[in-house]
Amino acid sequence: MLFLYAVPFSLAYVSLGAGTGALILFGAVQATMLGAALTSGERPRVQHWAGLMLALGGLVYLVLPGLTAPSPVGSALMTAAGVSWGIYSVRGRRATDPLAETAGNFARAVPLALGVSIVAAAYASWSLEGAALAVLSGALASGLGYVAWYAALAGLTATRAASVQLAVPVIAAVGGVVLLAEPVAVRLVASAILILGGVGLALTRTGPRRPPPPPAGEPRAPEPVSHSGG
Q1: What was the pLDDT predicted at 67?
Q2: How far is Cα of residue 43 from the mean position of the Cα atoms in its chain?
Q3: pTM, 2 dp
Q4: Any idea where the domains of the chain sit in the sequence?
Q5: What are the CB-based long-range contacts (under 8 Å, 24+) for 8-13?
Q6: Residue 217, Cβ neighbours under 10 Å: how many?
Q7: Quick one: which of 12, 33, 39 has its CA closest to 24?
């Protein structure tokens, strides 16, 4: 699933704009993870659905200026990438050792990636700077990021995990402002409020609250005891 996410994602962006690609990718991820959640018996509450829709609306608003008529091949590849990432995330909820399992996932993807590289060798070009950036992107940003994601998944339902990923475009946009001196546009601020507000709403826990524990040293109230007898 890791391989089937990364390679179609890379190829899709050759023919898709950034905004269009992000919308197709996240739409496929959400649909896959929500489908898995409903199939497994999760029943999201109204505020969870509302939060997800609000966050998706914020994403559409964020990428709207970059939306173009998508290439059919690029759209199919990006949809495949989104479905694969959704499955990868759903399976990650069962991870018990995020570091070891992520390392194993990367190791098992290497032969497949090498096969693609061999097939595409005629089109390859590289530089020392590009190779260094690729290693940093794969081993540091992606590798450690996926370890953190697998660790976080253990405490999230599939619905909440699907929703929280919509914060990624906001984080990327903030990185552009901080690291690349990109301007802070009204659209960015408004969409960030919508997305993060929607994610927060989707993460809201519901249900009866447990009574707080008594302060240290204070005895607990005795349990009621029923008596019977003649």
Answers
A1: 67
A2: 20
A3: 0.74
A4: 1-93+156-203, 96-119+130-154
A5: 8/77, 8/78, 8/80, 8/81, 8/84, 9/77, 9/78, 9/81, 11/74, 11/77, 12/74, 12/75, 12/77, 12/78, 12/81, 13/74, 13/78
A6: 5
A7: 12
